[in-house]
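Q: Mind making up any chain with structure tokens?
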Amino acid sequence: MNYLKLALCLAAVGMTASVGQAQPASAAPSAAAPKELPPASTKQGLTFDKDIKPLFEASCTKCHGEQKPKGKLRLDTLDGFKAGSEDGAIYKEGDSANSAIVKAVARINPKTQMPPAPRKPRPGPDGQTPPPQQEPPKPLTPEQVGLVRAWIDQGAK
């Protein structure tokens, strides 16, 4: 218990000492600055079938399609998108900046980015590392994320 009190006191002293004072140039920030969301596209009349489904097919439906959708999230149909995942809704209609799907495809947070970074292959029983079986999906470009944002802002139809 004494260690906890000491840690809290040291943390409080460190916080009060740093309030209003510039950090030395050599001090590293405690966390990387978050990436910003790309702006929503100005394109109007976006639809799932015409504009969004092709993006999802290229980057998302290998894992979030009809066959064993991860997290129970299907991105191959509009109904699947609107149904969300096992964790609930993935978007807020009219509010793309606060939609989980937008933050994921914009790759803001490495822990929740989609598609995820490829895993390093593990050696097999013979000690050899097998070659990748298929190309990993490509992340959406900022322009494509902007289209998804505009589509959600326009009502996700």
User: Anything to note?
Assistant: Residues 125 and 131 are 14 Å apart (CA to CA).
